[in-house]
Design goal:
Arc Repressor Mutant, subunit A; sequence-specific DNA binding; alpha+beta; 5-stranded antiparallel sheet; 47% helix; single chain; DNA-binding; HTH-like; transcription regulation
Amino acid sequence: MAAVSPTLVYIGKISGNPKWSFPSHQHKDLSEMVFIAEGEGVIKIDGQPYAVQQGDLLIYNQGVLHEECSSPICPLTLYYCGVANPNIEGICEHDLIPRNASPHIKTREYAGKISMIFASIHEESSLQERGHSIVLQSLLVTLITWIQRLVQIDQTAVKDRDPDSLAVQIKEYLDLNYLRHVQLKDIAEHFHMNAYYLSHVFKHKYNDSPINYMLYRRMGEAKRLLVNTEMKVAEIAGFLGYENANYFTILFTRTMGESPTQYKKNESRERVNLLES
């Protein structure tokens, strides 16, 4: 539980800019919380990319490198807030969450409450009416306390689940993190279980392996970007976490049966025919 000693250093809001991005950086004297109010994007934390969407909460512990990029189709609207001296019992003095916890948190039933807290902190900080510092301290402690609850939920979520519901939970995790190019053992470590059993549970329900499922999710996102944006193939490759555009093209061609360029041409031709018919 959080002690009543955290300090709000700043609060800000980014709203609906399709070209918004922030290059890799870190905060040496504070930790940061980011709440996705609307839209989609990619946020890289400590070298790992995460596909983020409405209701997601991102935690950057002190000194952790991170960078943000908004989707050009569904631009991000987000709140960000810097916190110094959170002093949370049981974890490093300057951190908001344990170092072994996922920095990408699905807020679930807390989404509405957390959205309201961030909006209230932003409003109180902007207006600075009488007693605002007391209100801000109360809101901040409440927010940090709820984050601790969510972290605990994430760490115990796989307990008392039957295989079918466990497979659904694995899929939800993959849908949220399909840009993370992780190995099966890394996914298994997240769920605190044997990699073979995890793969068996997932394949039994979805007739596919977790790794292959994430590959198809990335290629599906590539198809969407090819058709709906003017992004070049190299840009899409980078957006999806592939440093080598040629390797991305090979994977896309092998998976989808045609190259990204050919797919874009064919899809554009089909759309023109539909419009003319």
